[in-house]
Amino acid sequence: MLFLSLKIAKPDIMKCFFYAMILLIVGCKSVPEPSTSERIGEMMNYLASDELNGREAGTAGIEIAANYIETIFKENKIDPYFETYRDTLSNFDGVTYNMVGFIEGKDKNLKKEFVVLGAHYDHIGKAASVGEDTVANGANDNASGSTTVLELARYFGHTKSNKRSIIFVLFSAEEKGLLGSKHLAEKLKDENLNLYVMLNFEMVGVPMVEKDHLMYLTGYELSNLADVTNSYAGEKIAGFLPKAKEFNLFKRSDNLPFHELFNVPSQTYSTFDFTNFDHYHKVGDENSLMDFEHMANVVNKVIPVIEGIANAPTQEVKYN
User: Fold this and answer.
1) pLDDT confidence band for 31 (50 / 70 / 90)
2) Is the dihedral of CA 66, 69, 75, 77 positive or negative?
3) Span 33-311: which CATH code?
4) 3-class secondary structure, 151
5) Given CA atoms 174, 177, 182, 184 in this order, what sign does their dihedral have?
6) What's the CA gap between 310 and 315, in Å, rounded?
7) Which one of 11, 267, 289, 296 has the minimum C-beta count within 10 Å?
8) Cβ contacts of 132 within 8 Å, gap of 6 or more
């Protein structure tokens, strides 16, 4: 056989084997495991626990949540966008902050363009009591969106597969009038940030009922984001919800300030369809009602979409 005639010194063989193993290990580590219901549940059970007392902006409860978010950012190799992860709001009467992480794009030109992935991590604190329960835990609103963004941060933090730069932001004081997103949008606009798209996640904790898509987009008709989303997903995961247009949800979440200041596609993905959840701003917004398998599915379906948007050679997502 031919290989018998090859004269390779044993040390060279061992060296080749060693480097092959290194490449194999590095290659395996570059792709994190998919999102799972267990990991989703672990984060949700913390963020929406009674210990955090409803995560109202400016309280000790949201401070605990901020510490937790910072730990996850650090564990997943997400850099702070500013000097620290905490960006104190200038428009809030008290002290609260957005948590802002960052992965620089790996393409020397495209890294100058930014994708913002966001969700608000605050809630309302207390609500009308049911029995002895007064804590509005905010599992669906919006520990679910926050967990989605943190899982996306975990993925991209390990793969570093994005050519464009990505900002991961957990907004505070959304419940006070979109104050966190208004603060950050103004701050980034003052920096002349080259924003491509802002993708927001709001109330994705339970699946929609009898729909032919996984999520809907607020402001559906304003851009081609649904088509781009479905193209990269390889199936219809983003669609239109008439109720979202009727109640003008496009203007009721953290995408709005980015739309207003940057005039680039800034939209929210959601699975709250007005029939599948009866505990908006109530103490019943508990983890026991959340579907962690559904949430893991949302994350895993959205990963190739974010990768496609972050890596496309041209800016495909456009307002109509």
Assistant:
1) confident
2) negative
3) 3.40.630.10
4) helix
5) negative
6) 9
7) 11
8) none
E strands, the chain, in order: 79-80, 86-88, 97-103, 114-120, 126-130, 133-135, 165-171, 195-201, 215-217, 238-239, 266-270
The two tokens of residue 304 are 């190739």
Residues 277, 207: Cα–Cα separation, whole Å: 10
CA 194 – CA 228 distance, rounded (Å): 20
Beta bridge partners of 268: 200
What tokens appear for 166 in the block? 């990505």
Q: How far apart are CA 44 and CA 144, in angstroms?
A: 7
Structure-block tokens of residue 139 = 């599992």
Closest to 280 measured CA to CA, from 256, 258, 252, 241: 252
Q: Are strands 195-201 and 165-171 parallel, antiparallel or unpaired?
A: unpaired
Helix ranges (DSSP H) in 113-272 = 144-159, 179-190, 225-233, 242-246, 256-262
Rg of the chain on CA atoms, in Å:
21
Given this model, what pLDDT does residue 30 score? 60
What's the pLDDT at 71?
Answer: 98
Question: What is the C-alpha to C-alpha distance for residues 112 and 102, in angstroms, rounded to an integer?
Answer: 13
Residue 142 contacts residue 123 (beta carbons within 8 Å)? yes
Residue 173 has pLDDT above 90, yes or no: yes
- Length of the chain, in residues: 320
pTM of the model: 0.91
Return the domain boundaries, the chain: 33-311
